Write the structure tokens for this entry.
Amino acid sequence: MTKSMAGLQQRLSRAKPWVLVAALLGAVLLVFYSVLGVRYWQASRELPAVKERILELTRSTRSRAPDEQALLSELEARIKRLDDLRSLFSYSQPDDLVAIVSATAKETPINLLSISVGEQQSKTYGGVDYKSQPMTLSLQGDLTSIYRFMALLHHNVPVAHFTSVKLSSGKEGSSGQVQVTFYVLPPAGQEEAN
């Protein structure tokens, strides 16, 4: 072993210094690129799985990307629906309701004998504050016409709730006393105050 070391030393002493630097640099570059090659080989084995994950994430983000036009049209539809629902409760004065009851009575073959308007009351239902307007209606006509009047009134004012119906028959036909409650939202200023 000492002989081979001595031979190596002798050969190195005859070599020029730039050859030694070049050989050393070559050895360093060989090790460096070997390490890079191993890392590239490892990364290339993981590449298909990474590409698949990227495609999966791209698909999921595209499918969840909001369509701005669709969202705007949905918002407009919901705002219209809210306005429509609010309009159902927009009878702020009892006179508005009396006019609707009178017009509905004229559309049916009944006689509206009297309308008694009660005191408005505040109520909360489902977390919403609103006013209720009770009325008592005295009617005269046949039973079918009275039922038709009630159905038409409920159709004209969907927020009408019939709380009591008393019917009687006599020589002059049927008569009835109907208690109805209309649910109305408070005016805009009072609604914000609550």
User: Anything to note?
Assistant: The longest helix spans residues 17-64.
